[in-house]
Amino acid sequence: MAKKGKGPAPAAAAAAKPPAAKPPAAKPVKKEIKKPPPEDDFIVFSNSDKDPKPKRTGPSNPPPDDEPADGPPKLTIKQIIGGTSWTGKLPVNLLSEHCQKQKWERPDYNTIKTPEGFSVFVSLSARNPKTHEIVKLPPFKLPPSHVHLAYRHTALEAKHVAATFALYRVCSMKNLTISLPPDYRKLWKEFEALKKQDIREGKGWMYEADPFQALREREEAKAVAEKKRNQQQAARDKAAAEPGGAGLSLRGHGAGGGGASHVVRGWAAVPKIEMGNKTRSQLEDLLRRETVWNQYGVVMTSQQKAAIVKEFKELGFRQSHVEEAVEECKDREETLEWLLVHIPEDDLPRWTLPERYSAGVTVASTDLRREGAIKRLSESGYSVDLCGKILDANGGDEGRAAEALQKLLLASGADGQDQVPGEKELEDDDLWRTPEEIWEEEMATLEACFGSKYTRSSPDLCQIRIDSVTNGPNTNVETHIQFRKSPQYPAQVILSIVAALPAYIKLSIIKKTLAYARVSLQGEEAKIYFVASWLQENINGIIERPGVLRDVAAVASAASEEPKPFARPAQRRPRFPKPINWTPDPQSKQNWLVRVEAPNYQKMLAQRRKLPAWDVREDIIDTVRENQVTIISGETGSGKSTQSVQFILDDLYNRGLGRGARMIVTQPRRISALGLADRVSEERCSPVGQEVGYTIRGENKTSQDTKITFVTTGVLLRRLQTSGGRVEDIVASLADVSHIVVDEVHERSLDTDFLLSIIRDVLYKRRDLKLILMSATLDAATFSNYFTMDKRGISVGLVEIAGRTYPVEDYYLDDIIRMTNFTPVDRYERYNRNDQYDDGISKKPSSDSQQVDPINKIIQKLGSRINYELLVETVRGIDGDLAENNESGGILIFLPGVAEISRACRALQAVGSLHVLPLHASLMTKEQRRVFAPPPPGKRKVVVSTNVAETSITIDDVVAVIDTGKVKETSYDPQNNMRKLEEAWASRAACKQRRGRAGRVQAGKCYKLYTKSLEMQMAERPEPEIRRVPLEQLCLSVRAMGIRDVANFLARAPTPPEATAVDSAINMLRRMGALDGEELTALGQQLAMIPADLRCGKLMVFGAIFGCLDDCVTIAAILSSRSPFLSPPEKRDEAKEAKMRFSKGDGDLLTDLRAFQEWDAMTQAYVPQRQVRQFCEENFLSFQTLSDIASTRTQYYSSLSEMGISPPPAMTNNGPQSMALLRALTASAFSPQIARIQFPDKKYASSSSGAVELDPEAKTIKYFAQDSGRVFIHPGSAMFGSQSFNGNAAFLSYFTKMETSKIWIRDLTPFNAYTLLLFSGAIELDTQGRGLVVDGWLRLRGWARIGVLVSRLRGVIDGLIAQKVENPTLDFSNNEVIKTVIKLIELDGLDA
């Protein structure tokens, strides 16, 4: 019932708990009532104490006689949920609309009432388009940590909360905050925090825009994982059934690289690592000085710490040690390393020690006196190795060594320096007696006081027995405290403990006792007596609470170090430009008006008025002035790239605002930036570098007066990346920029999408900054929605420029064959046997006539490769037709890459009537400009170009286009795990652009070297690069900007990449060493600045650090190109023999390196080119490939020079030492592309000198990769048929992996175990004591501490890289760390 009066708020009233007793129903009164509202709108509000529980039978109860029938006005759902002033949509409506747009079913709501209130779950469902079955997702549920957000007083409110959560799960990449009612905006913020937490825990799939696709992918991945798990379990079961095989399989790592069939062999067959004592001692000395723990100051959560403490306690470590370690370390692996370094060997769990190891025991010694002294010194808990080093450093004097060890102990720990006695203390003692007299008097006193407990083993050494010493269950532990006379006696006494106690406890006893003596016994005559007495009373308490391990670690372990406070390197903040001053300047306007009247400017203006862009000049100016983002679309040649920026600048001049104009125009290619800068400068009658300039990598032509700067997209990105990382820093770095123009947006390159993601955030902060997007085939709606979806006030305007093209007639492949009467020669049939042309129709004859159609047969023979003979014949035919009709004009040919252009140019140059010119981005600017000039008299210009001529530049006199339909685009090859440029069919949009080039000056013709049916199968538009390439480089660039949440940043890109692709990229960066957890390493900082594949960049960085930069840059160039060796089918054996002349067993890449070096030496010595080409022919080398390698090497050096890295004047990498290092560095670049070598059982032959080990036959050596199981060396590799490998190699790195009848690997480099440890993935310690696991699957037998030492050495190497980042001119040729690494690699860890 409704009643007037004050009462609780409507929502609270509706939620009030009804009483248990239900009052009798009121007698109905016949009265006309209104039709009840829908169920969701029927809410009864009441403050009556007579009938607090309204009836559910409908609104038929009349009001009391004393109350009007109308009652107070009822609140609507919109007012209840959104508030009285809310006029927008509600969460339930927004979710329903989203489901309708996605063609999903209506959301299903399930309401549950609990003691906490009402809770609602939402389930989404959709119809599978293939099976037409309804797929229903599990209900969206909040985790326990956030479940309190779901409870509400009413079912209605709970329903809208559930809808908000469901909406966030499928639309988290959109900012819908403003679309929600006020209370639900706060929920959206809560869900954002929850998403970040879920992503960190690997649950990013929960927030995919298409949850049904995510569900399918997870189910498929689960099925694959289950299948693999079953295979591994079957292999383990088989291994356990074999005699002695039960304990050999690796827990948690399956069968390793050898596949399931090799679990039986377990750890017995894996390589063994050893480290010589001398080498280990030198490495420990180095690490004591250099190592740093938890370099980035990461703090683990309490849950992580608790889990580690529990796990390691079960593995045999003391809980107190683990609790201390987790406070200093960043993760589980570093905690384990810390424990193995700092805990004395006698207190380590047994599994951490090598086989047949006994602490402090020496098998043989040639100096018994020295060994005896070391043993006595180490009895107090000091490290045996450290005792030996200190004893040797003090010339074998045991007393001085004991004093030095005690000083080191006192200096150890956080309060160490306070406990070292000062000089003043040494002078305050009794000086009227000699130290010898005082010592003898004290010895007599001790003997009288302690009686039989006192013994004196030498004039300078006495000991006293301590009674009733207890260590856990062990009672009456025999314990003696020794006192050694020191040169500073009586101010200083050398103390030691002899007892069956753990080393760190004995050291703690010594340190605490000396601390007591220093504080309480200063100036006492009988100091030794009081120390012994105090220790008798307190020793058991010290044993129970010995203190932290860090306080004694410096002397308990030879590899431990003194704690160093982490000092994060001070980041140099860049100097940001001053903000723009938009105060009108009348003088600027006056100067402009005078300039416009100049005759030469008027002449240029007359030409500009002929362009279609001029017709929309006012539209462009007004749209840019009124909107923050402007999208300009127009056909190529309309003048949008050259005119739009001039229109905007001229408008600013006319308004007196020219002084504030600073426009940056991005272009995807260098040639475009250079060409447009030249063209616009010419039109504005000013030299390049004044009003109009350009900035490309390695070249800058601008001045203080430059208003328009053309740049490559990468140049602008680098400027933003080095600004500091935060949005505020980026905004500050662009303070002097008024307009950013992004051209050719339709190409959707990785750099362009990355740039737009950054700029959008900048636009929110700087409302005066203008962004102009330009393209020939722009999907305007996509970008308009991208900038307005967040509803943060960004306005978007659109301007379309009409094209200016003439009709173009199309000819397809079958037409061209008929026109030219072309017939391929027989040799193509052999080459194209497995490369038949497939357009989906040509290979499906539907009638007898089609089976014998000669055109179809020719198309079948041509295959999908470019046929250069057909290309030449087509050009001949076009040239003939134009000449017959006395028509001038050029021919433009589109080919996919530089190699194809070079081959086509050579073929076309044989036609005397043609003037052939190449055009691609790698040409020098002078050579590129030749395509715009008219041809010589009597010649027809033929431009052979890549896709740069599609939209980037315009050649005015082209009347015919030959389109091969091919393009080279960046793609990811999972077989090689590298980014590659591969040939593919172009999109229909790109082919349309190419076609339009023929109609620029007159009606033209387009000759398409593909069929019409194939054209219909081409993609409509190119897929955004961000969706088809690996994202390691992009993720690294994002992280290098200071953005920690890389996944969230990329989720806001115009086309977000798959979450799994981002996770995979982040994981790969960790495996490569570019990321340490979430932190960017010094190596990662360097790689982010090198415009090359990450693996090539890693190789060059290590080359700069280890002093062999030239060789590493050359190998990187070879990787970026291809091997220079040729292998003609008819001369395969001779080619292999020629290749082996350059091979020394170091692998394929070093073989290629030697061939290039010999060729390069000839070219540098100005050997006649005829002789150089003859050398190439004799050795089956490609002259063109070698030239490409040299060109790529030059580009890499240019990039390195920008970073300040240049090769040293004299290279020292010659001889076997450098080859061992080069093998290691080359192999390191390919991690994780590694294969394990499995040798057969050794065989021996008898000889006069005894048994001799035989080299195994090549066919008995097996190779295993992580994902592929067994692999085989490709016959074309220099390693094919190898029976042994240089440098004790146990692994191969590979560049290429392919599958035919077998899985083949090639481009190989052999390397040893220490190369793997130093440069590959993370090192894990097997907690069963069998050895180490590298990169999650490669196993090595050996002492766990070896892995720890090398892991620490990796951190020191990264420190050197950090120094190189700060000072690129540093030379590490004599650096101790570098020498240690080289020694480990060359000698495989053994002593020299």
TrEMBL record:
<dbReference type="InterPro" id="IPR059023">
    <property type="entry name" value="RNA_hel_CTD"/>
</dbReference>
<feature type="compositionally biased region" description="Low complexity">
    <location>
        <begin position="7"/>
        <end position="19"/>
    </location>
</feature>
<dbReference type="InterPro" id="IPR056328">
    <property type="entry name" value="DSRM_DHX29"/>
</dbReference>
<feature type="region of interest" description="Disordered">
    <location>
        <begin position="219"/>
        <end position="254"/>
    </location>
</feature>
<keyword id="KW-0067">ATP-binding</keyword>
<dbReference type="Pfam" id="PF24385">
    <property type="entry name" value="DSRM_DHX29"/>
</dbReference>
<feature type="compositionally biased region" description="Basic and acidic residues">
    <location>
        <begin position="29"/>
        <end position="38"/>
    </location>
</feature>
<dbReference type="GO" id="GO:0016787">
    <property type="term" value="F:hydrolase activity"/>
</dbReference>
<dbReference type="Pfam" id="PF07717">
    <property type="entry name" value="OB_NTP_bind"/>
</dbReference>
<dbReference type="Pfam" id="PF21010">
    <property type="entry name" value="HA2_C"/>
</dbReference>
<dbReference type="InterPro" id="IPR014001">
    <property type="entry name" value="Helicase_ATP-bd"/>
</dbReference>
<dbReference type="InterPro" id="IPR048333">
    <property type="entry name" value="HA2_WH"/>
</dbReference>
<protein>
    <recommendedName>
        <fullName>RNA helicase</fullName>
        <ecNumber>3.6.4.13</ecNumber>
    </recommendedName>
</protein>
<dbReference type="GO" id="GO:0005524">
    <property type="term" value="F:ATP binding"/>
</dbReference>
<dbReference type="InterPro" id="IPR016135">
    <property type="entry name" value="UBQ-conjugating_enzyme/RWD"/>
</dbReference>
<feature type="domain" description="Helicase ATP-binding">
    <location>
        <begin position="621"/>
        <end position="796"/>
    </location>
</feature>
<feature type="compositionally biased region" description="Basic and acidic residues">
    <location>
        <begin position="219"/>
        <end position="240"/>
    </location>
</feature>
<keyword id="KW-0547">Nucleotide-binding</keyword>
<dbReference type="InterPro" id="IPR027417">
    <property type="entry name" value="P-loop_NTPase"/>
</dbReference>
<dbReference type="InterPro" id="IPR011545">
    <property type="entry name" value="DEAD/DEAH_box_helicase_dom"/>
</dbReference>
<dbReference type="InterPro" id="IPR001650">
    <property type="entry name" value="Helicase_C-like"/>
</dbReference>
<dbReference type="InterPro" id="IPR009060">
    <property type="entry name" value="UBA-like_sf"/>
</dbReference>
<dbReference type="InterPro" id="IPR007502">
    <property type="entry name" value="Helicase-assoc_dom"/>
</dbReference>
<dbReference type="Pfam" id="PF00270">
    <property type="entry name" value="DEAD"/>
</dbReference>
<dbReference type="GO" id="GO:0003724">
    <property type="term" value="F:RNA helicase activity"/>
</dbReference>
<dbReference type="InterPro" id="IPR011709">
    <property type="entry name" value="DEAD-box_helicase_OB_fold"/>
</dbReference>
<dbReference type="InterPro" id="IPR002464">
    <property type="entry name" value="DNA/RNA_helicase_DEAH_CS"/>
</dbReference>
<keyword id="KW-0378">Hydrolase</keyword>
<dbReference type="Pfam" id="PF05773">
    <property type="entry name" value="RWD"/>
</dbReference>
<dbReference type="InterPro" id="IPR006575">
    <property type="entry name" value="RWD_dom"/>
</dbReference>
<feature type="region of interest" description="Disordered">
    <location>
        <begin position="560"/>
        <end position="582"/>
    </location>
</feature>
<feature type="domain" description="Helicase C-terminal">
    <location>
        <begin position="870"/>
        <end position="1042"/>
    </location>
</feature>
<dbReference type="GO" id="GO:0003723">
    <property type="term" value="F:RNA binding"/>
</dbReference>
<feature type="region of interest" description="Disordered">
    <location>
        <begin position="1"/>
        <end position="75"/>
    </location>
</feature>
<dbReference type="Pfam" id="PF26026">
    <property type="entry name" value="RNA_hel_CTD"/>
</dbReference>
<keyword id="KW-0347">Helicase</keyword>
<dbReference type="Pfam" id="PF00271">
    <property type="entry name" value="Helicase_C"/>
</dbReference>
<dbReference type="GO" id="GO:1990904">
    <property type="term" value="C:ribonucleoprotein complex"/>
</dbReference>
<dbReference type="Pfam" id="PF04408">
    <property type="entry name" value="WHD_HA2"/>
</dbReference>
